[in-house]
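Worked example 2:
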Amino acid sequence: MALVSDSPPDSVLVPRQYQEEIFLKAQQRNVIAVLDTGSGKTLISALLIKWIATQETPQKKVIVFLVPKVPLVEQQSRFIAQHTSLRVAQVHSDVSAGVMDRARWTNLFSQSDVLVMTGQIFLNILTHSHWSMNKVSLLIFDECHHARKNHPYTTVMAIYRACPEIDRPKVFGMTACPSWSSDLRQTSLANLEKNLNSKIVTVQEHLDEFARYSSKPTEVIRQFPSPPPVYLEYPIPPIWSRFDYSQIPASVDIPWQQLNGRYLFTLENLGIFAAELFLYSDLQTRISELLHPQDLNEMESLRVRYLYTDVPSETNDTRDHRIPELRDLCEVLAEYQPFFEYVSDDQDESVPWSFRLGWCSPKVQTLVDILLESYTPDFHGIVFVDRRHIARVLSSIISRVSSLKGLITCAECVGHGGDEKGIAGGMPTERQRKIVNDFRDGKINLLIATPVAEEGLDFPACDLTVRFDAMQGMVGYVQSRGRARRATSTFVVMVQQNNTSDIHNYRSLSEREPHMKKLYQSGTFTSLSVLEGGQSEDEEDSSDYVYPTDLARRERFVVPSTGAILTYNMAIGLLGHLCALIPCDAFTRAQKPHYSGDFVSTVRLPPALPLPPEYLVYEGPRKHSKKEAKRAVAFKAVKALYALKVFDDHLLPAHGKSEAEVDDDPSQADNTAHVPEMMHVDVLSPWTLGSKLWSHPVCMDGKRVAGVVTGTPLPPTELVWDGTTLILGRAELVRFDMEEEYQQRKLMQEYTDLGLWWRVSARPRPAPLSCFLVPLLPNSCQPDFLAMEHLLKQSYGKSDWTGVDECAYDHTLVMNNMQHGRPFVLRKIRFDLTPLSRPPADSREAGFQTYWEHYKWLLRKRKGYFLEVPTDGPLIEAVLIPRQTSRTYQLLPRDRSADVIMASADDSRPFLFPMASTSVFSMSEGMFSLFALFPRLLHRVQDLWRAHSARASLGLPPILDDRLIEATTLPAAAAGFNNQRLETLGDSVLKLCSSVHLYNKFPHYHEGQLDNLRQRAISNRTLMFRAKAIGLERYLNVEGQNVRTWPTVVADDSPTRQDETCSDRSVKRRIARRSLQDCMEAIIGAGYLSGGVPMALQVGTALGLNFGGPVQWRFRYAPPPNTQLASARYSELQDALGYEFQHAELLQEALTHPSFRSGGKSYQRLEFLGDAVVDTVVMTYLFEKFPHANSGQLSSLRARAVCGPVLAYVAVRVLNLHEFLWADNSELTAAVEKYIPILQATSNRDIVLQSWAHDPPKVISDILESLIAAILIDSGYNLDKTVCIVEAIMHCVLEVLSPDLPPEPVSAFFLWAARSGCKRILLSKSSSRPESKQNDTVSVVVHDTTVVGPVTASSLPVARAFASEHARMILQSTDSDKALVRICDCKEQEVCASNTEPTRHDTVDEATEIGFAAVAQMELEKFTDPQEDQGLGDDLEAEKVPDADIEMSTCLVT
């Protein structure tokens, strides 16, 4: 899907008079415009679109332009976009799977004015009620003659007729020929009018002008001789004679009988060389696909070539050992390669493979003569054939004809639909587009085309159009002839001599066309309701004809809640789509409904659908035709499955995107699209001022020191830091003196601000504080206002040293006038020194004759200060105290051996000041120490208050306080802890809880449906929606830890700023939207750690997640008691597990592959559940074992343990599960048996480190996961027991895991490259198959030298991994010619960083040297700077206050 244009039109539409004539008729009613090819029908539709767009409508309506084939979507959408100013969207068939995504369709329709799409896609949209017919203002049908039988056009119009007439859109049809029939039966035209609810119109008033612009070519019949029985001149034996295909087993997917039929057809029409060329090319294509490295040996071959250094890097061609049965055939084809792939420019008889026109049929030789006769310098021509393989072979032959070289440049043009393999398969869309464009531009002047080129595609007028094969009807005749629309053009019909039937058919079409034109020009043909007798057009194809009685009995089902529509024509497709979603591996055939019976049809659904047996088989009513019987039984089956909720209310397979059964339909999550990446939110805060203030006593090491006063009652809190224990007591209401309240509030502001200035930050606080730390009255929680007033009178301290003796040493604050703004602690009074004493050599003042001279020099540096320096009196020895600027505190027990609580200054020597210029600050030691811890205490209190508020408001269970705080703390807070570890754990728990609920709630859903439901339930969009719905952002901790800018102040926009009696408990904060979904998962993880799965269920229910409620699983889902024990066959398995099953059917289901048709269930649903169980068990194990591992490390370790190769290793090495597998597929059994020795020979460490290099059959890991799920269910959902079993059987791989493991090969290569310093490395990507858009090949290029590659694999990630690992091995090997030390000169060249590092706005692309260097650097930073450590170093930073004096008046609130 793509928006083509929403810009002004490139040109103004100037219609001709005959186009205006049709346009005026279209304004008045629904019409079908019948005009010749190239006469401008699309321009009329554009005029109508512009006119409709100007009409006012009461609701949002769109214009829908329907085309029959995908190539026309782009062509018509671009034309409309160029000639209108409307928003035009094109919808391609390759996004049809998007029919499951309602939000995507809703957004597309809301953002577009015109949508161009195929009829089938629009039918799907209407069927599933993504849009409705009453929201369409104009419905255009391009090539509308397709509106017959069961074409999507016809079904769309059936929905149109079911819409109330007042709500129907206008209809406009376009075609060059309205009738498929070659006779003059009027029913054909009447049928078309009826099907489209429109009137056929053509030009009637401006015929002369119309004739000038719709020239007819000269029509010629060209006869050719019959083909010879044998081609005696053909020099080599036929390929068929060189091998016996009956000896090739049926398991090799080559349809020999079909190939033989096509070979004979090609031989008859094109000759022996063409038939042999077809067979050679088709077999080469099919064998190439079979031998492409998407086979079981891919990983083994790649390991041998790129990992094992003792094996030569180049291996022999693997064709013969991959499929031994094709060895002889490959050798035969290799002999023919020079003959078919060498194209000679001459006819030298000495060259045995030089092409001869005599090897071709007379029909081809005649075509060559026609081309030579018709050639002109600006020649354009099209040769129409019926079959794709004929088009490709004929194009190749034309290119080999020497007489046409330099004249004709040829290419084939075929459709791209269908699943056909070989050269009869479809053409990639990009290649088809290129060929069409080259033909328009003249780079190609001859197309060999199938009927795909007959209609719609915008080709230039051709000089020659050739019907190489017989015409099948009037539409093909008119449209193919319409390509030759110049007056000098020629339309050639090739007919074999003496073939009177083909000649008669052509002449019949030619003679009847003028009569048919007169018929619809006059508009006098009889309507279908009046006609009696005769066969209608649909009756001509009896296989698709619907008898009137059957038609009358057809049902139509509409879902009342959504308006989704089910009809007979749609039912078969819906059943097929349901079955196509059933997961299948390489050894399981695609699941399809099986229809049987003739006029009473029976449909059997695949047993992989988890339905009771009685719901897998349906029998329909008796009908008059087989096709109608098939439609009827499909209709019955879909209705029944809808009742079982297998189809949802939009008639989609219950799949997640539209799942109405999921609690509180998560489709509402689409409403989060408007949430910006960075959100401005209101976060709750306890720090407020109001009419009531609350005092909370603070005890330090058991002694009450002060009180915290704010407008919110705070929870009791304990904080331990640096060996000091703080306890915040219960709140008590502050009792103000009514007359003095204003002054008393002001005292608390000034006192707290003074303490912060001395001990925390000297920066001014322009806003009022919202919490205070104040002294308390003895034996009371009330503030001591007199003590505050006394201290504030001596804000700078006092100069009177009376009473200061040795007892005050190390307990008294002092400040010197020459170091104003810097607090010191008195160490001692030096009566042995005076300002005139000589400083010792190791002192700060060394170099000066006296201390006095040092003081004078210090003052001279501070311009504007004139202080007298005393020359007598003792000196004061003091130590600078760094201000405490961090709010961090220790949340959970952890190793803080590296933390330094009060770092020493760089220079630990004491300061010496004259006592006469030094002041003593009389704040108590306890209060002074408490102010240093005040920021940390406030941080802890705030976190705890928010956690309690969240628990109460959101209805959360009693999660441990510290866990809930951790879960709601964002990394941006740099608090020394954050929610990322819990988020990683919570992600696994979320997946498990959702999986258990969905598994039990939807017993009839297969694994594919359950997986899509789970993805929807746990998606970031759903988590975001739930978080916004409950207002989670109000409880998040995002404030930074540096308090130089004090955070607990009254905001500028707070009502408290104007009125202190008004409380406001929220602050403005800015957070990333991703934080919401992370916190949702982190809270689940916190609940899980606090109380296991039972508490996690309570948490999920409180958060509104899809957990099925808070009731424990063992009460909800545990199976009833059962004594049917497993058979003795499983005794060894149960012994290895240490568990005995109580429900034998669960064990049997867990080990049954879908290929085993026993009538029972396969392991697929259990595997869905087991995947979540293993994920949670492993993540819990890692979380507890590695408490210091960060989120990224935990995720990486989980990915190493919970992957297919590692689980397969456990299944084989620990449990021998492969011996208990039930499967009925010889290829699967062989593949498993082949990989068992590889797993058995691999060590546990190697499988963990090199899991990326292994690809065992998925079934091995699947049955392990399904077995684990079976244990969980069989044990009555006893997760603790299941965890013990899983940890025991996975111990061999879990013990290998460590955060110190080397990274996977791609990351390892990036890290190594970054450390090496080389800036000229890149990963070049390409595709091994030109027709494929997807890259699957990687080469490593260093300094323009290809070190490794091309490495080709079935997927690009696999190729990247092997290429990266092998490149690192080569580059770091000193013995290699391509060692980095030999080819890299980056250090010598001193590559400038500006040339090797992209800017932040550049696209980082590892396929460029600059991009690779940037990715490598990012990988290095990620590896060396784990995110969990951020913020731990804040305590080491001491604020450095400049020498300039900081006036106290700037810090106090006046």
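Residues 690 and 1063 are 4 Å apart (CA to CA). The chain has a mean pLDDT of 82.
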